[in-house]
Design a protein that fits this description.
The complex is a heterodimer of chains A (146) and B (105).
Chain A: H1 4-22, H2 26-55, H3 62-96, H4 114-118, H5 122-142
Helix pairs in contact in A: 1-5, 2-3, 2-5, 3-5
Chain B: H1 3-13, H2 18-42, H3 50-74, H4 86-102
Classes of the chains: A mainly alpha (146), B mainly alpha (105).
């Protein structure tokens, strides 16, 4: 595991998933699954944007590249907004409606400074999502001995 | 061969960057779909379809590596090839994903 932030994000994810599962909170599990997909969407759009930017000088049509970049930039904003929205929705569910609401740690699923979520710090929330994605891959794939 | 050495060697055989783009694209796809499948499994949601997507992207990554290995072998002098073991490919995908994240704006 590469960073303490990823470790922490992964530990919290496991803690909350286990709590929800033990208490049979199906709505919570579905919301958590949706959130992970939003994290994966965010990674996807970051990767697509990086790929386009790398093409840069080798592109045959600079105008086309410009259009593609503008398109992916807009998509990234939409995906990022959806991610932020889902972190907030999931945390609200955890603290107000979940069967396990009394056992949820401060910050809920979000392990970075809670203030960064409160003020909707886009960079921090994006970083957190990528930390969680990284941790899920490393713990489940790289540590898999099969 | 570690990932840094791989990129150094790739620069010698992939002058227009198409092999590197294919490698990075398939690695990112595999990483993304593996995470989606893990997300579904750990929240007890259906994984059908996700496993197939993950395996498909893994096959694309493998295929990209096979083509890269051919170029590395044809270089004069021949350059070290990439191990096609599952753990090695997963480690490479993880490295590439981290580079994508690190260099994002």
């Amino acid at each position: 595991m590469s960073s303490a932030a990823s470790k922490e994000a992964f530990a919290r994810y496991n803690e909350i998933a286990t709590l929800l599962n033990q208490k049979g909170d199906r709505d919570g599990m579905k919301l958590l699954h949706t959130l992970i997909n939003k994290c994966a969407d965010y990674f996807r759009v970051v990767a697509d944007q990086g790929k386009l930017k790398k093409r840069g000088d080798s592109a045959s049509s600079r105008m086309q590249l410009g259009r593609d970049l503008a398109e992916v930039d807009e998509l990234r904003t939409i995906v990022h907004n959806a991610l932020i929205s889902d972190v907030v929705i999931f945390n609200r569910y955890l603290f107000t409606k979940s069967i396990v609401k009394d056992q949820i740690p401060i910050g809920g699923i979000y392990t970075f400074d809670p203030e960064t979520l409160r003020v909707r710090d886009r960079r921090a929330i994006g970083d957190w999502a990528l930390c969680l994605v990284e941790a899920l891959f490393e713990y489940h794939i790289l540590d898999d001995d099969d | 061969m570690d990932a840094l050495e791989l990129y150094k060697n790739l620069a010698q055989v992939d002058t227009d960057g198409t092999l590197i783009e294919r490698l990075e694209s398939s690695a990112a796809g595999y990483y993304e779909w593996a995470v989606r499948r893990i997300g579904a499994e750990t929240t007890f949601q259906p994984v059908s379809g996700l496993k197939e997507q993950e395996e498909g992207m893994y096959s694309e990554l493998e295929s990209a590596i096979i083509d890269i290995n051919r170029e590395l072998a044809n270089h004069n002098p021949p350059l070290p090839q990439i191990d096609l073991g599952k753990n090695q490919l997963a480690a490479l995908a993880s490295y590439i994903a981290k580079q994508i994240v690190r260099t994002r704006t």
